[in-house]
Write a structure and sequence with these properties.
mainly alpha
Protein backbone atom coordinates (compact mmCIF):
# COMPACT_ATOMS: atom_id res chain seq x y z
CA UNK A 1 0.00 0.00 0.00
CA UNK A 2 2.82 2.40 0.87
CA UNK A 3 4.48 1.77 -2.50
CA UNK A 4 1.24 2.64 -4.26
CA UNK A 5 0.93 5.89 -2.33
CA UNK A 6 4.59 6.78 -3.07
CA UNK A 7 3.98 6.11 -6.75
CA UNK A 8 1.10 8.58 -6.75
CA UNK A 9 3.42 11.28 -5.39
CA UNK A 10 6.32 10.33 -7.69
CA UNK A 11 7.48 12.07 -10.83
CA UNK A 12 5.38 9.63 -12.89
CA UNK A 13 2.15 11.41 -11.98
CA UNK A 14 3.44 14.95 -12.62
CA UNK A 15 3.39 14.71 -16.47
CA UNK A 16 -0.16 13.33 -16.34
CA UNK A 17 -1.26 16.29 -14.22
CA UNK A 18 0.46 18.79 -16.54
CA UNK A 19 -1.09 17.26 -19.67
CA UNK A 20 -4.59 17.27 -18.16
CA UNK A 21 -4.23 20.90 -17.01
CA UNK A 22 -3.05 21.93 -20.48
CA UNK A 23 -6.01 20.15 -22.08
CA UNK A 24 -8.36 21.75 -19.57
CA UNK A 25 -7.30 25.37 -20.06
CA UNK A 26 -5.51 25.62 -23.43
CA UNK A 27 -7.62 23.48 -25.75
CA UNK A 28 -11.05 24.11 -27.21
CA UNK A 29 -13.65 21.34 -27.16
CA UNK A 30 -16.95 21.43 -29.03
CA UNK A 31 -18.60 19.25 -26.38
CA UNK A 32 -18.78 20.18 -22.71
CA UNK A 33 -18.81 16.46 -21.91
CA UNK A 34 -15.13 16.24 -22.88
CA UNK A 35 -14.31 19.13 -20.55
CA UNK A 36 -16.24 17.45 -17.74
CA UNK A 37 -14.37 14.17 -18.31
CA UNK A 38 -10.99 15.94 -18.11
CA UNK A 39 -12.05 17.83 -14.99
CA UNK A 40 -13.34 14.59 -13.45
CA UNK A 41 -9.91 13.01 -13.97
CA UNK A 42 -8.33 16.02 -12.29
CA UNK A 43 -10.68 15.65 -9.31
CA UNK A 44 -9.69 11.99 -8.97
CA UNK A 45 -6.00 12.85 -9.17
CA UNK A 46 -6.42 15.59 -6.56
CA UNK A 47 -8.17 13.23 -4.16
CA UNK A 48 -5.56 10.54 -4.82
CA UNK A 49 -2.73 13.00 -4.17
CA UNK A 50 -4.40 14.19 -0.98
CA UNK A 51 -4.86 10.59 0.23
CA UNK A 52 -1.25 9.68 -0.60
CA UNK A 53 0.16 12.78 1.16
CA UNK A 54 -1.83 12.20 4.33
CA UNK A 55 -1.28 8.44 4.25
CA UNK A 56 2.50 8.77 3.96
CA UNK A 57 2.78 11.29 6.81
CA UNK A 58 2.98 9.02 9.83
CA UNK A 59 6.00 10.30 11.69
CA UNK A 60 7.95 13.46 12.38
CA UNK A 61 10.50 12.39 9.78
CA UNK A 62 7.79 12.16 7.12
CA UNK A 63 6.60 15.64 8.09
CA UNK A 64 10.11 17.07 7.71
CA UNK A 65 10.63 15.41 4.33
CA UNK A 66 7.50 16.88 2.74
CA UNK A 67 6.23 19.80 4.90
CA UNK A 68 4.80 21.94 2.13
CA UNK A 69 3.06 19.02 0.44
CA UNK A 70 1.15 18.46 3.69
CA UNK A 71 0.40 22.18 4.09
CA UNK A 72 -0.91 22.38 0.51
CA UNK A 73 -3.03 19.30 1.12
CA UNK A 74 -4.56 20.85 4.23
CA UNK A 75 -5.26 24.08 2.31
CA UNK A 76 -6.85 22.02 -0.46
CA UNK A 77 -9.04 20.21 2.03
CA UNK A 78 -10.09 23.52 3.62
CA UNK A 79 -10.84 24.95 0.18
CA UNK A 80 -13.05 21.99 -0.68
CA UNK A 81 -15.02 22.43 2.52
CA UNK A 82 -15.52 26.14 1.83
CA UNK A 83 -16.72 25.54 -1.73
CA UNK A 84 -19.25 22.96 -0.56
CA UNK A 85 -20.51 25.25 2.19
CA UNK A 86 -20.80 28.16 -0.27
CA UNK A 87 -22.52 25.92 -2.85
CA UNK A 88 -19.63 26.04 -5.26
CA UNK A 89 -20.61 22.69 -6.81
CA UNK A 90 -23.48 23.85 -8.99
CA UNK A 91 -23.63 23.23 -12.75
CA UNK A 92 -21.26 21.06 -14.80
CA UNK A 93 -18.11 19.58 -13.26
CA UNK A 94 -15.81 22.11 -14.93
CA UNK A 95 -17.95 25.02 -13.68
CA UNK A 96 -17.57 24.12 -10.01
CA UNK A 97 -15.59 26.55 -7.87
CA UNK A 98 -13.90 23.46 -6.48
CA UNK A 99 -12.30 22.96 -9.91
CA UNK A 100 -10.06 25.99 -9.41
CA UNK A 101 -9.11 24.79 -5.93
CA UNK A 102 -8.25 21.23 -6.99
CA UNK A 103 -6.45 22.31 -10.17
CA UNK A 104 -4.33 24.87 -8.30
CA UNK A 105 -3.48 22.19 -5.74
CA UNK A 106 -2.44 19.71 -8.43
CA UNK A 107 -0.39 22.33 -10.25
CA UNK A 108 1.50 23.27 -7.09
CA UNK A 109 2.17 19.64 -6.18
CA UNK A 110 3.38 18.83 -9.70
CA UNK A 111 5.68 21.86 -9.67
CA UNK A 112 7.24 20.78 -6.35
CA UNK A 113 7.83 17.26 -7.67
CA UNK A 114 9.35 18.49 -10.95
CA UNK A 115 11.61 20.97 -9.11
CA UNK A 116 13.11 18.19 -7.00
CA UNK A 117 13.81 16.04 -10.04
CA UNK A 118 15.39 18.94 -11.91
CA UNK A 119 17.93 19.20 -9.11
CA UNK A 120 18.57 15.46 -9.36
CA UNK A 121 19.17 15.80 -13.10
CA UNK A 122 21.50 18.75 -12.50
CA UNK A 123 23.70 16.50 -10.35
CA UNK A 124 24.52 14.40 -13.40
CA UNK A 125 25.14 17.38 -15.66
CA UNK A 126 28.16 19.65 -15.94
CA UNK A 127 27.46 23.09 -14.38
CA UNK A 128 28.37 24.69 -17.69
CA UNK A 129 25.60 22.71 -19.42
CA UNK A 130 22.89 23.18 -16.80
CA UNK A 131 22.01 26.74 -17.86
CA UNK A 132 21.64 26.17 -21.63
CA UNK A 133 19.91 22.83 -21.03
CA UNK A 134 17.36 24.38 -18.67
CA UNK A 135 16.69 27.18 -21.17
CA UNK A 136 16.14 24.67 -23.97
CA UNK A 137 13.61 22.80 -21.81
CA UNK A 138 11.71 26.01 -20.98
CA UNK A 139 11.75 27.16 -24.61
CA UNK A 140 10.39 23.85 -25.89
CA UNK A 141 7.68 23.72 -23.22
CA UNK A 142 6.75 27.34 -24.00
CA UNK A 143 6.58 26.55 -27.71
CA UNK A 144 4.21 23.65 -27.10
CA UNK A 145 1.97 25.79 -24.87
CA UNK A 146 1.84 28.64 -27.38
CA UNK A 147 0.79 26.19 -30.10
CA UNK A 148 -2.28 25.24 -28.04
CA UNK A 149 -5.53 26.47 -29.62
CA UNK A 150 -6.58 28.75 -26.75
CA UNK A 151 -3.19 30.51 -26.59
CA UNK A 152 -3.79 32.48 -29.78
CA UNK A 153 -6.70 34.11 -31.51
CA UNK A 154 -8.48 32.33 -34.37
CA UNK A 155 -6.01 31.20 -37.00
CA UNK A 156 -3.36 29.94 -34.62
CA UNK A 157 0.39 30.33 -34.97
CA UNK A 158 3.03 28.45 -36.95
CA UNK A 159 5.57 26.26 -35.09
CA UNK A 160 8.45 28.54 -36.11
CA UNK A 161 6.63 31.64 -34.86
CA UNK A 162 5.74 29.85 -31.62
CA UNK A 163 9.39 28.84 -31.16
CA UNK A 164 10.51 32.40 -31.98
CA UNK A 165 8.10 33.90 -29.43
CA UNK A 166 9.01 31.34 -26.76
CA UNK A 167 12.74 31.91 -27.30
CA UNK A 168 12.34 35.68 -27.25
CA UNK A 169 10.34 35.53 -24.00
CA UNK A 170 12.56 32.96 -22.25
CA UNK A 171 15.74 34.78 -23.32
CA UNK A 172 14.06 38.05 -22.22
CA UNK A 173 14.65 39.68 -25.58
CA UNK A 174 11.39 41.22 -26.76
CA UNK A 175 11.69 40.76 -30.52
CA UNK A 176 8.28 39.67 -31.84
CA UNK A 177 6.95 38.23 -35.08
CA UNK A 178 3.37 38.20 -33.76
CA UNK A 179 1.62 41.09 -32.04
CA UNK A 180 1.42 40.26 -28.33
CA UNK A 181 -1.68 42.45 -27.96
CA UNK A 182 -3.79 41.21 -30.87
CA UNK A 183 -2.49 37.76 -31.82
CA UNK A 184 -2.47 36.18 -28.36
CA UNK A 185 -5.34 35.51 -25.98
CA UNK A 186 -5.14 36.18 -22.26
CA UNK A 187 -3.88 32.61 -21.76
CA UNK A 188 -1.19 33.18 -24.40
CA UNK A 189 -0.12 36.45 -22.83
CA UNK A 190 0.03 34.74 -19.43
CA UNK A 191 2.26 31.99 -20.88
CA UNK A 192 4.57 34.64 -22.35
CA UNK A 193 4.70 36.41 -18.98
CA UNK A 194 5.57 33.16 -17.16
CA UNK A 195 8.32 32.47 -19.72
CA UNK A 196 9.70 35.97 -19.12
CA UNK A 197 9.70 35.45 -15.35
CA UNK A 198 11.34 32.02 -15.51
CA UNK A 199 13.81 33.19 -18.17
CA UNK A 200 14.72 36.31 -16.21
CA UNK A 201 15.47 34.50 -12.98
CA UNK A 202 16.55 31.16 -14.44
CA UNK A 203 14.81 27.80 -14.19
CA UNK A 204 17.42 26.35 -11.83
CA UNK A 205 16.95 29.27 -9.43
CA UNK A 206 13.27 28.36 -9.16
CA UNK A 207 14.00 24.65 -8.90
CA UNK A 208 16.65 25.08 -6.20
CA UNK A 209 14.51 27.51 -4.22
CA UNK A 210 11.45 25.29 -4.16
CA UNK A 211 13.51 22.16 -3.50
CA UNK A 212 15.10 23.81 -0.46
CA UNK A 213 11.89 25.44 0.71
CA UNK A 214 9.80 22.32 0.35
CA UNK A 215 12.06 20.18 2.49
CA UNK A 216 14.23 18.46 -0.12
CA UNK A 217 17.94 18.21 0.59
CA UNK A 218 20.58 19.66 -1.73
CA UNK A 219 24.03 18.20 -1.26
CA UNK A 220 27.38 19.96 -1.30
CA UNK A 221 28.00 19.10 -4.96
CA UNK A 222 24.58 20.51 -5.93
CA UNK A 223 25.31 23.66 -3.94
CA UNK A 224 28.67 24.14 -5.63
CA UNK A 225 27.11 23.60 -9.07
CA UNK A 226 24.42 26.20 -8.40
CA UNK A 227 26.92 28.74 -7.12
CA UNK A 228 28.99 28.22 -10.26
CA UNK A 229 25.91 28.82 -12.40
CA UNK A 230 25.25 32.07 -10.51
CA UNK A 231 28.98 32.93 -10.58
CA UNK A 232 29.14 33.49 -6.84
CA UNK A 233 31.36 32.30 -4.03
CA UNK A 234 28.69 32.29 -1.30
CA UNK A 235 28.10 28.54 -1.28
CA UNK A 236 27.51 28.40 2.47
CA UNK A 237 24.52 30.75 2.27
CA UNK A 238 22.79 29.42 -0.83
CA UNK A 239 19.30 29.23 0.66
CA UNK A 240 19.43 32.82 1.92
CA UNK A 241 20.67 33.97 -1.49
CA UNK A 242 17.83 32.20 -3.28
CA UNK A 243 15.28 33.60 -0.83
CA UNK A 244 16.78 37.07 -1.31
CA UNK A 245 16.52 36.75 -5.10
CA UNK A 246 12.84 35.81 -4.93
CA UNK A 247 12.05 38.51 -2.35
CA UNK A 248 13.80 41.24 -4.35
CA UNK A 249 11.98 40.11 -7.49
CA UNK A 250 8.52 40.03 -5.94
CA UNK A 251 9.03 43.30 -4.05
CA UNK A 252 10.35 45.30 -6.99
CA UNK A 253 7.84 43.91 -9.47
CA UNK A 254 4.94 44.52 -7.09
CA UNK A 255 6.11 48.09 -6.41
CA UNK A 256 6.53 48.70 -10.15
CA UNK A 257 3.03 47.38 -10.88
CA UNK A 258 1.50 49.65 -8.22
CA UNK A 259 3.34 52.71 -9.55
CA UNK A 260 2.37 51.94 -13.14
CA UNK A 261 -1.27 51.42 -12.14
CA UNK A 262 -1.35 54.75 -10.29
CA UNK A 263 0.19 56.46 -13.32
CA UNK A 264 -1.89 54.84 -16.05
CA UNK A 265 -5.21 54.97 -14.20
CA UNK A 266 -4.94 58.77 -14.38
CA UNK A 267 -4.37 58.78 -18.14
CA UNK A 268 -6.87 58.39 -20.97
CA UNK A 269 -5.90 54.87 -22.03
CA UNK A 270 -9.35 53.48 -22.73
CA UNK A 271 -8.66 50.51 -20.46
CA UNK A 272 -11.00 49.15 -17.84
CA UNK A 273 -9.77 48.75 -14.26
CA UNK A 274 -9.05 45.07 -14.84
CA UNK A 275 -7.15 45.81 -18.06
CA UNK A 276 -5.10 48.51 -16.33
CA UNK A 277 -4.16 46.09 -13.56
CA UNK A 278 -3.13 43.43 -16.10
CA UNK A 279 -1.14 45.97 -18.17
CA UNK A 280 0.63 47.20 -15.02
CA UNK A 281 1.56 43.71 -13.83
CA UNK A 282 2.71 42.58 -17.28
CA UNK A 283 4.86 45.63 -17.97
CA UNK A 284 6.37 45.66 -14.47
CA UNK A 285 7.55 42.05 -14.78
CA UNK A 286 8.65 42.56 -18.37
CA UNK A 287 10.66 45.67 -17.43
CA UNK A 288 12.35 44.19 -14.35
CA UNK A 289 13.27 41.06 -16.33
CA UNK A 290 14.60 43.32 -19.12
CA UNK A 291 12.31 41.57 -21.60
CA UNK A 292 10.79 44.48 -23.54
CA UNK A 293 7.52 42.66 -24.27
CA UNK A 294 4.52 44.97 -24.30
CA UNK A 295 0.76 44.46 -24.56
CA UNK A 296 0.54 47.45 -26.90
CA UNK A 297 1.12 47.12 -30.64
CA UNK A 298 3.36 50.21 -30.65
CA UNK A 299 5.16 49.24 -27.44
CA UNK A 300 5.16 52.33 -25.13
CA UNK A 301 5.07 54.98 -27.85
CA UNK A 302 1.57 55.94 -26.69
CA UNK A 303 3.08 57.06 -23.36
CA UNK A 304 5.72 59.43 -24.69
CA UNK A 305 3.69 62.26 -23.13
CA UNK A 306 4.00 60.61 -19.69
CA UNK A 307 7.48 61.18 -18.17
CA UNK A 308 6.41 59.13 -15.14
CA UNK A 309 6.08 56.05 -17.35
CA UNK A 310 9.61 56.47 -18.66
CA UNK A 311 11.03 56.94 -15.16
CA UNK A 312 9.21 53.92 -13.70
CA UNK A 313 9.97 51.54 -16.57
CA UNK A 314 13.55 52.82 -16.79
CA UNK A 315 14.12 52.33 -13.05
CA UNK A 316 12.77 48.76 -13.22
CA UNK A 317 15.13 48.05 -16.12
CA UNK A 318 18.15 49.37 -14.19
CA UNK A 319 17.28 47.40 -11.05
CA UNK A 320 16.84 44.19 -13.01
CA UNK A 321 20.07 44.77 -14.93
CA UNK A 322 22.19 45.41 -11.83
CA UNK A 323 22.10 41.76 -10.80
CA UNK A 324 20.53 39.93 -7.88
CA UNK A 325 23.80 39.53 -6.00
CA UNK A 326 24.35 43.28 -6.03
CA UNK A 327 20.81 43.93 -4.81
CA UNK A 328 21.40 41.43 -2.00
CA UNK A 329 24.67 43.10 -1.03
CA UNK A 330 23.04 46.54 -1.07
CA UNK A 331 20.16 45.27 1.06
CA UNK A 332 22.52 43.80 3.65
CA UNK A 333 24.58 47.00 3.68
CA UNK A 334 21.51 49.18 4.31
CA UNK A 335 20.22 46.89 7.05
CA UNK A 336 23.63 46.83 8.72
CA UNK A 337 23.83 50.63 8.59
CA UNK A 338 20.36 50.93 10.17
CA UNK A 339 21.25 48.49 12.95
CA UNK A 340 24.77 49.70 13.77
CA UNK A 341 24.72 53.26 12.46
CA UNK A 342 28.07 52.60 10.76
CA UNK A 343 28.70 52.68 7.04
CA UNK A 344 30.83 49.85 5.69
CA UNK A 345 32.38 50.02 2.22
CA UNK A 346 30.72 47.89 -0.40
CA UNK A 347 32.66 45.00 -1.97
CA UNK A 348 34.76 45.87 -5.02
CA UNK A 349 32.39 43.92 -7.31
CA UNK A 350 29.39 45.95 -6.13
CA UNK A 351 31.15 49.30 -6.45
CA UNK A 352 32.52 48.37 -9.87
CA UNK A 353 29.07 47.43 -11.19
CA UNK A 354 27.50 50.61 -9.80
CA UNK A 355 30.29 52.76 -11.26
CA UNK A 356 30.16 51.19 -14.73
CA UNK A 357 26.34 51.29 -14.79
CA UNK A 358 26.27 54.93 -13.68
CA UNK A 359 28.79 55.96 -16.34
CA UNK A 360 26.91 54.16 -19.12
CA UNK A 361 23.52 55.58 -18.12
CA UNK A 362 24.89 59.13 -17.82
CA UNK A 363 26.71 59.00 -21.16
CA UNK A 364 23.70 57.47 -22.93
CA UNK A 365 21.30 60.03 -21.43
CA UNK A 366 23.43 63.00 -22.46
CA UNK A 367 24.10 61.64 -25.95
CA UNK A 368 20.48 60.69 -26.67
CA UNK A 369 18.94 63.94 -25.45
CA UNK A 370 21.59 66.00 -27.24
CA UNK A 371 21.24 64.13 -30.55
CA UNK A 372 17.46 63.64 -30.56
CA UNK A 373 16.44 67.00 -29.04
CA UNK A 374 15.07 68.29 -32.34
CA UNK A 375 14.30 64.89 -33.87
CA UNK A 376 12.18 62.29 -32.05
CA UNK A 377 11.92 64.54 -28.96
CA UNK A 378 10.72 67.55 -30.95
CA UNK A 379 7.63 69.26 -29.52
CA UNK A 380 7.91 67.68 -26.07
CA UNK A 381 8.17 69.57 -22.81
CA UNK A 382 11.39 69.45 -20.78
CA UNK A 383 10.03 66.83 -18.31
CA UNK A 384 8.81 64.72 -21.22
CA UNK A 385 12.19 64.92 -22.95
CA UNK A 386 13.97 63.92 -19.74
CA UNK A 387 11.56 61.04 -19.05
CA UNK A 388 11.81 59.70 -22.59
CA UNK A 389 15.55 60.32 -22.61
CA UNK A 390 16.08 58.32 -19.42
CA UNK A 391 14.12 55.34 -20.74
CA UNK A 392 15.87 55.42 -24.10
CA UNK A 393 19.24 55.70 -22.32
CA UNK A 394 18.76 52.50 -20.29
CA UNK A 395 16.62 50.43 -22.68
CA UNK A 396 19.39 49.62 -25.24
CA UNK A 397 21.28 47.72 -22.56
CA UNK A 398 18.92 44.71 -22.93
CA UNK A 399 15.40 46.00 -22.20
CA UNK A 400 13.73 46.77 -25.55
CA UNK A 401 11.03 49.23 -24.48
CA UNK A 402 10.67 52.38 -26.55
CA UNK A 403 8.56 55.51 -26.25
CA UNK A 404 9.82 56.99 -29.53
CA UNK A 405 9.95 55.15 -32.89
CA UNK A 406 13.28 53.32 -33.18
CA UNK A 407 13.19 53.50 -36.98
CA UNK A 408 13.16 57.32 -36.84
CA UNK A 409 16.29 57.65 -34.70
CA UNK A 410 19.32 59.32 -36.21
CA UNK A 411 21.94 56.94 -37.70
CA UNK A 412 24.48 58.05 -35.09
CA UNK A 413 22.05 57.24 -32.28
CA UNK A 414 21.30 53.81 -33.76
CA UNK A 415 25.02 53.04 -33.89
CA UNK A 416 25.45 54.22 -30.31
CA UNK A 417 22.59 51.87 -29.38
CA UNK A 418 24.49 49.02 -31.06
CA UNK A 419 27.44 49.71 -28.76
CA UNK A 420 25.19 49.80 -25.68
CA UNK A 421 23.43 46.59 -26.74
CA UNK A 422 26.78 44.84 -27.04
CA UNK A 423 27.79 45.92 -23.53
CA UNK A 424 24.49 44.84 -21.97
CA UNK A 425 23.63 44.54 -18.29
CA UNK A 426 25.62 43.39 -15.26
CA UNK A 427 26.47 39.80 -14.25
CA UNK A 428 23.79 37.86 -12.41
CA UNK A 429 21.04 40.18 -13.62
CA UNK A 430 18.15 39.64 -15.99
CA UNK A 431 19.82 41.25 -19.02
CA UNK A 432 22.14 40.05 -21.76
CA UNK A 433 25.19 41.36 -23.59
CA UNK A 434 28.83 40.76 -22.73
CA UNK A 435 28.19 42.49 -19.38
CA UNK A 436 29.40 45.80 -17.96
CA UNK A 437 32.13 44.18 -15.86
CA UNK A 438 33.74 42.52 -18.90
CA UNK A 439 34.06 45.84 -20.70
CA UNK A 440 35.09 47.60 -17.48
CA UNK A 441 37.86 45.08 -16.80
CA UNK A 442 39.33 45.62 -20.25
CA UNK A 443 39.32 49.38 -19.67
CA UNK A 444 41.19 48.78 -16.41
CA UNK A 445 43.61 46.57 -18.32
CA UNK A 446 44.19 49.36 -20.85
CA UNK A 447 44.80 51.85 -18.04
CA UNK A 448 47.30 49.56 -16.31
CA UNK A 449 49.06 48.96 -19.65
CA UNK A 450 49.44 52.70 -20.24
CA UNK A 451 50.73 53.03 -16.67
CA UNK A 452 53.14 50.12 -17.32
CA UNK A 453 51.75 48.03 -14.50
CA UNK A 454 51.64 44.24 -14.66
CA UNK A 455 48.12 43.95 -13.22
CA UNK A 456 45.06 46.20 -13.26
CA UNK A 457 44.26 47.86 -9.95
CA UNK A 458 41.18 49.56 -8.55
CA UNK A 459 40.40 50.76 -5.04
CA UNK A 460 43.64 49.25 -3.70
CA UNK A 461 42.82 45.83 -5.07
CA UNK A 462 44.54 43.85 -7.84
CA UNK A 463 42.45 42.18 -10.55
CA UNK A 464 43.55 38.58 -11.28
CA UNK A 465 44.87 37.95 -14.77
CA UNK A 466 42.48 35.01 -15.05
CA UNK A 467 39.49 37.36 -14.80
CA UNK A 468 40.92 39.42 -17.66
CA UNK A 469 41.19 36.24 -19.74
CA UNK A 470 37.55 35.43 -19.01
CA UNK A 471 36.46 38.97 -19.94
CA UNK A 472 38.42 38.79 -23.19
CA UNK A 473 36.89 35.42 -24.03
CA UNK A 474 33.36 36.75 -23.46
CA UNK A 475 34.01 39.76 -25.70
CA UNK A 476 35.53 37.58 -28.43
CA UNK A 477 32.55 35.22 -28.29
CA UNK A 478 30.18 38.18 -28.48
CA UNK A 479 31.91 39.74 -31.48
CA UNK A 480 32.02 36.39 -33.30
CA UNK A 481 28.32 35.73 -32.69
CA UNK A 482 27.33 39.23 -33.75
CA UNK A 483 29.52 39.08 -36.86
CA UNK A 484 28.26 35.71 -38.05
CA UNK A 485 24.62 36.56 -37.30
CA UNK A 486 24.85 39.88 -39.19
CA UNK A 487 26.50 38.22 -42.17
CA UNK A 488 23.87 35.48 -42.38
CA UNK A 489 21.02 37.99 -42.12
CA UNK A 490 22.50 40.06 -44.94
CA UNK A 491 22.65 36.91 -47.06
CA UNK A 492 19.10 35.71 -46.39
CA UNK A 493 17.18 38.97 -46.01
CA UNK A 494 18.57 41.79 -48.09
CA UNK A 495 17.14 40.58 -51.40
CA UNK A 496 13.87 42.49 -50.89
CA UNK A 497 15.52 45.90 -50.56
CA UNK A 498 12.83 46.99 -48.09
CA UNK A 499 15.41 47.73 -45.38
CA UNK A 500 18.99 48.92 -45.38
CA UNK A 501 21.96 46.78 -44.37
CA UNK A 502 22.29 48.76 -41.15
CA UNK A 503 18.80 47.64 -40.11
CA UNK A 504 19.84 43.98 -40.22
CA UNK A 505 23.05 44.73 -38.33
CA UNK A 506 20.95 46.52 -35.70
CA UNK A 507 18.60 43.51 -35.56
CA UNK A 508 21.46 41.03 -35.09
CA UNK A 509 22.94 43.02 -32.23
CA UNK A 510 19.51 43.45 -30.65
CA UNK A 511 19.11 39.66 -30.72
CA UNK A 512 22.57 38.94 -29.30
CA UNK A 513 22.18 41.55 -26.56
CA UNK A 514 18.66 40.19 -25.85
CA UNK A 515 17.42 43.77 -26.20
CA UNK A 516 14.34 43.64 -28.39
CA UNK A 517 14.65 47.00 -30.15
CA UNK A 518 13.93 46.80 -33.87
CA UNK A 519 13.59 49.14 -36.81
CA UNK A 520 10.75 46.99 -38.14
CA UNK A 521 12.78 44.11 -39.55
CA UNK A 522 11.56 41.36 -37.20
CA UNK A 523 8.00 40.93 -38.46
CA UNK A 524 9.08 40.57 -42.12
CA UNK A 525 11.96 38.15 -41.59
CA UNK A 526 12.02 35.08 -43.81
CA UNK A 527 11.95 31.63 -42.18
CA UNK A 528 15.78 31.27 -42.38
CA UNK A 529 16.11 34.77 -40.93
CA UNK A 530 13.87 33.85 -38.01
CA UNK A 531 15.96 30.77 -37.29
CA UNK A 532 19.10 32.93 -37.31
CA UNK A 533 17.57 35.33 -34.78
CA UNK A 534 16.33 32.41 -32.62
CA UNK A 535 19.85 30.95 -32.38
CA UNK A 536 21.38 34.39 -31.81
CA UNK A 537 18.97 35.17 -28.96
CA UNK A 538 19.72 31.82 -27.32
CA UNK A 539 23.48 32.29 -27.59
CA UNK A 540 23.27 35.87 -26.36
CA UNK A 541 21.31 34.87 -23.26
CA UNK A 542 23.15 31.69 -22.27
CA UNK A 543 26.68 31.79 -23.70
CA UNK A 544 28.23 34.54 -21.49
CA UNK A 545 26.87 32.98 -18.29
CA UNK A 546 27.78 29.47 -19.46
CA UNK A 547 31.33 30.56 -20.21
CA UNK A 548 31.53 32.22 -16.79
CA UNK A 549 30.27 29.05 -15.07
CA UNK A 550 32.73 26.86 -16.99
CA UNK A 551 35.73 29.03 -16.11
CA UNK A 552 34.98 30.23 -12.58
CA UNK A 553 37.62 27.92 -11.09
CA UNK A 554 41.32 28.09 -12.02
CA UNK A 555 42.84 24.70 -12.77
CA UNK A 556 46.33 24.48 -11.35
CA UNK A 557 49.03 22.94 -13.53
CA UNK A 558 51.91 20.82 -12.18
CA UNK A 559 54.33 22.45 -14.60
CA UNK A 560 55.14 25.86 -16.10
CA UNK A 561 56.61 26.55 -19.53
CA UNK A 562 59.19 29.28 -20.17
CA UNK A 563 57.69 32.65 -20.99
CA UNK A 564 57.99 34.17 -24.47
CA UNK A 565 56.82 37.41 -26.09
CA UNK A 566 54.35 37.94 -28.96
CA UNK A 567 54.52 41.15 -30.99
CA UNK A 568 51.39 43.31 -30.63
CA UNK A 569 50.37 46.18 -32.90
Amino acid sequence: MRKLLERILSINSAPVIVVLLVLRYLFRFSSLVAVDIIQGCLYLLALGTLTATVGLTRSRGDLKSRPWQLILSLLFLAGLVLTVVNRGTAGNLHEWTAAWVSNAYLGAMAFITISGHLILLARRTSPALVLPSSFIVVILVGTALLLAPRSTEQGGISPVDALFTSTSATCVTGLIVKDTETDFTFQGQLIILLLIQVGGLGLMTFAAFFSLTFGQNIGLSDTMNLTRIMDTEFASDLKHILVSILLWTLTIEAAGAVLLYNTWSGLETGWSTGETIWQSIFHSISAFCNAGFSLNSNNLEGFSHSPETGLIIGSLIVLGGLGFMLLTVLGKSWLNRIKTGRKRPLPVQARFVLLSTGILVALALLFFIGAEWNNTLRGMTIPQKLGNGFLEAVTPRTAGFNTVPTSELLPSVKWFFVILMFVGASPGGTGGGVKTTSVGLLFLSLRSLLQRKKQPEIWRRRIPAFDLQRAGAVLLMGMATFGVSSMLLLITENSTGQFQESDYIFEAMSAFGTVGLSTGVTSVLTTPGRWIIIVTMFIGRTAPATLAAATIRVRTSPYSYPEDRITIG
